[in-house]
Amino acid sequence: MDLPYADLSEDVQKAMSSISQEEYIRILLQFLNDRGLTRSAETLEQESRVEYEDESIQRIRVAVKQQNWFGSDDSLFSLLLQQNFQSPEARTRALTTACLRHYGHLILTDDRVSALDFLKARVLPLAKPPPAVASALASLVLVADEERLGRMSRSLAVIGGETEILATLSGCLTPGMLIGPARLERMAGQALQHQVSSDHVHFGPIINHSILSDFCSTKKALISPQTTVFHAQGECYCACTNIEHTLLVVGDSSGTLTVLSPAADDPGLRAVKLSHAAVQAVCLSHDQEQVLAGMHDGTVYDISLVDLSFRVVTSFASDAAVVGIQRYDKGFLLATVGGLYYIGSTGGYEPIPVTPNHNDSFEFGALATCDTAVHALVSGHVMQIDVRLGQPMEVIKAAETAGTTMALSSGGQRIAIAGPHCPLVVYDKSYGVVRSFTGHLHERYVIHPSFIEVNDLPIYCAIGGEDGVINIFSMTVGESIQRIPCHAGSCNGVLSLERVGMVASYGDDKKIILHGINR
After folding, report:
1. For residues 261 and 271, what is the distance between their CA atoms, to the nearest angstrom?
2. Sorted alphabetically, which SMART domains does this protein's record hold (predicted)?
3. Among 25, 137, 322, 468, whose CB has the most other CB atoms within 10 angstroms?
């Protein structure tokens, strides 16, 4: 077919030429090239030679002009498709080849019926994109109301539909998640608040590594059979890692802390016995040189990773077992069975009064932090608590079967919750349940989940059980893709070390097992 412009790249022209006239496609390609060519929206509209009969397309044009998306951004490539493609193959050729092999910064379409299916089937599981595609592919958002485009940044890629939104905002959402237009608008507004200028909001590339595309569309085994086993002094109850995932710290029932370097040729296994009470929570300091360890008897220790020397930071009542520790501000947040506390850099603690907003008994469980909020399991429900006010902000989960263990994704957007007779449920704070996994879980108990992230996106969730088996669940496939029997007795936790290509598990058999990740 004939193209509106002759200055398009050869690969785009080749892709578009494969679409026949008989398929009745109206396509407007508007292009600002690498030479810094700039045109106003009015000029482009005059040159388009396309008559718009659909009112929704007119609304898109108005929104685009209001935001001056065709201004100084010389890398902007927009593809506007009206109606209608007669086959998925035609849609695939037009969008994936023409857009993804070029800039892919802004895509507007009014293909109401099939845009969502196209994205889920073709774009997200794109198999091993070449480097040019990988570096250029931007966030994709299926927008329900075109008029909302006026509130978006020109750096946010959007695909317009009618009733559903498919969002892959970097660090927040995962391919395959459906949200509503109002929530998308709130999310975009929150993102704008953290930027210097609302005119230059960058959510970053989403699909930029072949491992993501490989596992999105298949049930390929994530964890390799290659393992390395280390032996602790007691039953392993808790673990933590540093930001680079080059350090692993495990606490056990004998009161011993075990430290090793999982990715090094010599792991340098070291251990220090703190007391006779079990270690129930561990967390690295802000400078990654200290470890804070909370004990079953309420004692909190500060351990140096240089020489494993330690000191008592503070002590709670003997019946106030420590159940969670997280870095917060310049110190730590610490949860005991009875309450929430802040421990400053100089030691001592300050109680944080939290009033539960439900009628259940008030009891803290697992703890996780993100920005200014702390997430805690309180009486089995996940609460997001504003530490500055000491009040719960929101009950994120309140189910008939309360959870006893929790994991938070690195971006803080997703929460995994599990417990006795309770399925593994993954929630997104913006709109609710992402997945609920019931199959292949041990019927009695599931323990200490962990998100395994790809390019900072929580694509997988791993969890251990009393049967000693690790289950790997795929957020995209929507079910268990792998079961790994590895511990004699309960597998008490799984910890992702994806930056060094590993996953760690620990259990009642006093074993710390490092599992490789298939690349």
Report:
1. 12
2. LisH
3. 322
Residues 361 and 510 in one domain: yes
Distances in Å between the Cα of 114 and the Cα atoms of 103, 144, 149, 508 are: 22, 13, 20, 50
Pair 251, 186 in one domain: no
* Tokens at 249, concatenated: 């710290």
DSSP state letter for 65: H
**214 occurs within a structural domain:** no
pLDDT, tens only, 419-436: 766 667 777 665 566 667
- Is the pLDDT assigned to residue 275 strictly greater than 70? yes
Which residue, of 165, 185, 208, is where some domain finishes? 208
Question: What are the structure tokens assigned to 392, written together?
Answer: 């719960």
- Count Cβ atoms within 10 A of the Cβ of residue 229 and give its class: 0-12 exposed, 13-18 middle, 19 or more buried: exposed
| pLDDT surpassing 70 at residue 183 | no
**Residue 439's pLDDT band (cuts 50, 70, 90):** low
Euclidean distance between CA atoms 493 and 513, whole angstroms: 11
Tell me the chain's radius of gyration from C-alpha atoms: 26
Whether the CB-CB separation of 10 and 41 falls below 8 Å is answered with: no
Take residue 169 and report the two structure tokens written for it.
């905002």
Q: 453, 501, 500: which is closest to 475 by C-alpha?
A: 453
Residues 303 and 180 in one domain: no
Shortest CA distance to 497 belongs to which of 445, 462, 447, 446? Answer: 462
The residue behind tokens 């006010």 is 389
DSSP H or E run through 184: helix 181-193
Q: What domain range includes position 379?
A: 223-517
Q: Is residue 3 part of a domain?
A: no
User: Which pair of tokens denotes residue 274?
Assistant: 């703190």
Within 8 A by CB and 6+ apart from 94, the residues are 15, 16, 19, 25, 27, 79, 81, 85
Most confident of 145-149, 223-227, 328-332: 223-227
Alpha-carbon gap, residue 29 to 152, rounded angstroms:
21
Residue 307 buriedness (CB in 10 A; 0-12 / 13-18 / 19+): exposed
What CA dihedral angle connects 164, 167, 172 and 173, to 10 degrees? 80
